[in-house]
Amino acid sequence: MKFPLPFASRTLLGLASLVLFFSGCAGPASTTSRSGPRSDGAANKTYDVIVVGAGLSGLTTAKDLIRTGHSVLVLEATDRIGGRAITDTSFPVPIDLGAAWLHGADTNPLTSVADWTGFQRAPSRLDGPVFIGSHRLRPDELKDFHAAAAETEEQMERAACAGRDAPVSDFLPARPDFRALLGGNIGPLESGAEAADTSSADSAAFVADPDDFIREGVGTFVARFGRDVPVQLHSPVNSIRYGADAAGGVLVGTTGGATYRGRRVVVTVSTGVLAAHKIAFVPELPGWKWEAIHALPMGLLNKVVFEFDGPILAHEHDSEWVLHLDSATASREGPDVMAFVIKPLGANLIVGFYGAAQAHRFETLGDAAAIARAKAVLAEMYGPELVTHIRDRATKVTKWGRDPWTLGAYSAARPGDSKEHEAMARPVEDRVFFAGEACGPAEFNGSLPAAFVSGLKACRAVQQSLAHDTIDVTAVPITAR
Predict the structure, then answer these.
(1) Which of 167, 173, 205 is nearest to 187 (CA)?
(2) Best CA proximity match to 410, nearest among 444, 458, 434
(3) Segment holding 216, helix H or strand E
(4) Rounded to whole angstroms, how far apart are CA atoms 272 and 276?
(5) Which pLDDT tens digit goes with each residue over 41-77?
(6) In sequence order, what are the residues at sequence separation of 6 or more whose Cβ sits closer than 8 angstroms to the Cβ of residue 18?
(7) Which residues is 239 bridged to in the sheet?
(8) On the chain, which terminus has fewer CB atoms closer than 10 Å, C or N?
């Protein structure tokens, strides 16, 4: 059993999410987003809060602050809102290239938002077939595999309850094939990091079942959620001055040369962007904050999406998670484990997943190598005839590690560092606040509700901070950098 939120907490979060969504969700995004630095006096205005990033966390923070009457400027580096939630509508059904599931749908605070606003959820099957090479595990073998998975999870939970946070690899079964399969599934395919580099406490806390798709796409859902939030696009932030260096407030600079003045700033960019020093902080962030950033590095999970020219795999269920171990690598550390979602939402599609070292390798080798490997695995599992029906021109491959605005898929706590989620969320000098999936609770472990909850918490913290603020930050010249 995982560690879900107490009922009261779930209820409050659900109510908060509904309030956020319904506080002005009419109107297309194009009426509230701008395509570049503003020329309407924004650079001479003092905002209560400047939000850096328009993913779910930034949108949640901004939405609630605006609802409570605060002046807010949202700066987004890219040409769209949604961050790592993006839906591709070129396939027969919407396919999410980033965040794709409502994990732990029964306790996920975003489930109520999706349901009450008319989005349709569809269950996925997590207990699908398992292959070792071309061998499909028989029912008795599959039963043993699931028993080994349950024992691994129980051991990690007992360790977490005892205050121990070790590498996931410490808890894997001794049997080589099951060890490789479970290590690949819990590590690369769940955390985006190798099992030896993954926090067992985070893995134990993560609530993943049931996993639901949103038929319209998670990216579509997040874009709808944030469509009433005014966002300034094409505005990468490259500097943040705060405190005494900004007359007690904040000065936020962008690569376009514009500087914006505020009383507080909420930074929602990924730990990958922070670790790469893409934003210069003056004064420099304290050591404890850098420790948190480096303790929660970005994991990597990429996808290859195949479309077929007709019906496929009639004997397999729709939206089924299929696990495959390359038998040639089963005995070594970091074996090649892939997963596939077969026929998502009933469409003639297969989505393949690579994680951690394997994902990094294919980002280096290129799309052709990633596609060839996925085809070879599908042929090994289901026969070579299947891959002859792939519409090659429709195939798409993600490369989240090479996205300059994310530098990875989502944060993955190192062994011993699950506690750093709290430090990651802690503000600096009551001026610079942080939100994002890395700042969220471990039970939501790098997923959408972690971003959402952290956005809500950041908003509350900022509101409390502003309520006691007596400093007039308008005294600082806007040209100070």
Answers:
(1) 167
(2) 444
(3) none
(4) 6
(5) 456 799 999 999 999 999 999 999 999 999 999 999 9
(6) 112, 113, 116
(7) 253, 280
(8) N
